[in-house]
Structures are given as structure tokens and as C-alpha cells.
Automatic annotation (TrEMBL):
Origin species: Mythimna separata (Oriental armyworm)
Residues bound to Mg(2+): 69, 280, 282, 284
Domain Phosphoacetylglucosamine mutase AMG1: residue ranges: 181-287, 301-440
Active site: 69 (phosphoserine intermediate)
Alphabetized SUPFAM superfamilies for the sequence: Phosphoglucomutase, C-terminal domain, Phosphoglucomutase, first 3 domains
Protein name stated in the entry: Phosphoacetylglucosamine mutase
Cofactor mode of binding and number, as noted: Binds 1 Mg(2+) ion per subunit.
Amino acid sequence: MPPSSLRVVYAFAREMHPKTSDVFIEYGTAGFRTKANLLEHVVYRMGLLAVIRSRVKNGRTIGMMITASHNLEPDNGVKLVDPDGEMLEESWESIATTLANVSDNDLEKTVQEIIATEKADMALKASVFIGMDTRYTSPRLAAAAANGVIALKGTPKEFGIVTTPMLHFFVKCRNDNTYGTPTEEGYYEKIVGAFKNIRKRLPARGDYNPRLYVDGANGVGGKKLKAIKKNLTELELELFNLGGVGEKLNLGCGADHVKVTQSPPKGITHPPFQRVASVDGDGDRIVYYYLDEQQKMYLLDGDRIATLIASYIQELLQACNATDISLGIVQTAYANGASTKYIQETLKVPVEFVKTGVKHLHHAAKTYDIGVYFEANGHGTVLYSDKAKKTINRISQEGDPTERKAAQLFLDFIDLTNETVGDAISDLFIVEAILCARGWSAVQWMELYDDLPCRQLKVTVKDRSVIKTTDAERICSEPEELQLKINELVAKYTNGRSFARPSGTEDIVRVYAEAETRQQADLLAAEVAQAVFDLAGGAGTRPELPAAPEL
Ligand code: 16G
Ligand code: MG
């Protein structure tokens, strides 16, 4: 592009999407995320960057998703999706951060530097897919994104309101047409179609009840399930928190609320033992729960989903006699110790730990023929290697009749999976298909193992970067005395485990603790929170200890 036309770009940027704030903003765990009113210039500039990235990738399509996931309504965010539908390559995160923070005057120079350093051929075509969540600030930001794309002569395609995983899926399909069709219909056809195929092979049986209640977090996931429900006879969906008048996104509801507070969402009533699935605001996380007659809550989180899926895949592999396919599970420090023990001792499947954040889990899961990854918070999926797909495909044609039947079912499970990223809708159908296959109620699913009670707390410190971690965030390497103190506290409790890590999305330190009883887990978490406050520069009020349990 000749420099004169680029000049127009920067004049336009200053005019239409000026940088109005000096607050430093960083491309974090899941892109930029902050108050929506600080984001317009950031999103415009990410439009520019997406075009450059598309050209660096030979004109393949890049995705841009406008969302702040489970954050409350006033926030928003943007993240880029790479051509294979995965999260933006880590080395580009710092490029994105630089571009987002330069002054309007330095924008031109910075863009040209990126183009030169990354050797982008600006004569190539560039294509960018844009999606947004249901926030009222999203349309304005999506328009700024499209303006950025157009400014560098890329072609934007706007999908309107879609879940984050749908956008990832569209990008993957656009660049690899064997994966599916890059439209909302194409997504339903593949994912819901696979579920219908599975249910044809596996009619409801045993204690499986096809009635499922869903908490839609007042976001996009619930809305899409409402559309799916119209043509779905295999599941009886009862949908709640669909974002009606006065219903606020993620407020007191959604997967994050249910997982962190360990309490049911508001706006939903259901009979005892009824399975409820709770998705998050942009539809990339899911947890299940049910209540007993005394209203005691039983949470089936990402760890439970991972173990359910892995145990079923193990069964399918055995039924297909696919002995040379390796299966592995990836977890983070937040995984309940009981789930890890179950994976190692009962399933006897290798388990690996990585840092929090989908990109780390996704990357590690790719090293297995079949890699199951889940964060305890309900974000996860299954990755099937080409080797696994080819082997199962071959068995579906050449195996003996039992093997063929198992392999055909397995192929539907692969189609049911959105392999680009964790997907609440795809995961919901996977869980339902497995429960149906086993004839299980949620109670039977819960009986696989007993969770250790756990608690999460937040601590405010002056500078959270003083805390450094190692060993997949399970050990605090700095300040040194903090880990010594955590060891000392943990040693007091049966089956105690605790860690502290700086959040990648909020200006706080997160503390996690688990122990043999609820009271002990609560106390250990509070004690570690106090230690963080005392040894890592606490700010504001010192966390309080709950009443001491009997040890
Ligand atoms: C983001 C991550 C999620 C992670 C969470 C941790 C993606 C798509 N999302 O939401 O995986 O669990 O951040 O937040 O990567 P934290 O660093 O504030 O605890
Ligand atoms: Mg989300």
C-alpha cells in the first residue's frame, strides 16, 4: 500500500477512534479486557493488526471476537483468533500490546515497523471474521474493528452476535473446508447434527432423563440454545436467564458465578436432582450442578466433565480395539486433587499440569493422539490428532462388526467436538450424549469420586507482579518466604493443598485451597490469603479468618 493512502488511515484513526486514555492496557490471558469505554481505539488498532496478521499468514482468515466473557456488563474486550481457529500465537501478544498503547502520533510509525518486522506482504488480500457478544457496547466496538480492517484494505465479515467458540469454528472452517461450513447454520449442522446422529444410535435408557435445565448467564450461549431448541427433540431443554428486560449479563448467574460461589444461579427454580447446566456470558465455559432435597448443591465442574469424557473415550478406544492411540488429560493447579487422583489411579491415564489459560492447555493437549483438556472453571475440549482420526475412520470401515459400530459412534463424537477451543454448547451435547450412553443420572455421574472441599479467595495487593510462580503455578517462587509460609499452613490440614497466583485478568492475587472438610478448606484459604497480604504487599483491608474448625 503506498504511504499516501496509509496516511489517510492515520488521519481517520485520530478522527474516528482516537486514543482518549493513557491507561496502559495489556493483551492478557484472553486478549484485552477492561471497561468498554477504554477500548474503542484498541479494537480499531486490533482491526489493523488482524489485517497484518492475515497477510503474514498468506491471506488466511483471522478472527476478532468482541467479548469480556464472564465479566459484568460494563466491561468488554477483544481477542484475535489465528487461522487454525486457535488463540493468537503468544509471540504476537506483545506486538498487540505495543500497538494498543502507542499514541495516535506514533501509530503510523508503529504499524509500519510491525509490517516490516513481520514481513507482511501488504499487496496480498486479507480477510478478518468479526463476532461479538450481547453487551450493549459490542456493536460500537465491532464497527471500530471493521473500520480498522477496512483501513488497511482488508475484508471484514461481520457475524453479529455469536458465541466465542462459534467464531473460532468459523475461522477454522474458512481456512480448512474439510472441518465444516463457516456459518452459523454450518456450526449447527455439524455439532447438533452429530448429537442427533449419536442419539439415533443411543436412545435414552436407564436413569438418563433427557430433560435438562440451562442457565444462559443472560448472554449469547442461552440465546443460541434457544435457536437450537426449535429443532431438537432429543433433549428437553428448559432455558433460563436468556437476557430478558432487566436481566443483567453474568450478574448472579452463569458458569463463573456457579463455580466460584459454589451456589446456584438466580432466576431459576427446579426440582431436586434435576441436572442444570450453567454456561458463561460468551458461551465458552460450562459447569453442571444439581440440588438435593435439602437444597445442598452438588457441582459437576470442568474436572468432572474432563473425567467423564476421558473415561468414555477410553471405553470407545477399547471397543474399537485402537490400542496404539494415546490418551492424555491436561489440567491446571485449580483441578480438584480428587479428580487428579481418579485420573491417575482409576483411569490410569497420564495427566499433565500447565499454567492457567486456554492457550497453555490447548498446546499441551496437542502432544497426545487424543488430548482432553479442561480448566476446573468449565473451559475445555478434546483434541483429536490426524493419526487418531485416520485410525478411527479406518476401523469404522475395516474393523469387525463390533469395532466398526464403536468406531462409527466415535466418529460422531469427534464431529460433536469443537476442537478449536472450549465450547459450552458442544460440551453440553458431549456430556448429554455420554450420560445417555451410560444411562446415568447426574447423581451417578457424581458418584465417580468425591471432590475435596475447596475455596477460592481474592487478595488485593499494591503490585501483583511481585508474586512469581513456578511448577504450573502450584509453587510461589517469589517472595520466597510466602511459599515457606504456605507449606507451613498446608501441613496442618489433612489432604491440604493451596497456592497463590497473580490473576491474568484482574488486578488481584487469587488464592486456592482444598482440604478434607469444608471448614478446613475455608480456613486454609483464609490463612493463605492473610499470608499473601502480609508478605506480598497487601493493600486495603486485611482478609479475615473464619471461625477455626476442629482439626
Ligand atoms: C481467562 C481465560 C481462562 C482462565 C481465566 C483465568 C481464555 C480463553 N480464558 O478467562 O482460561 O481460566 O482467564 O483468569 O484463555 P485469572 O488469570 O484472572 O484467574
Ligand atoms: Mg467465556
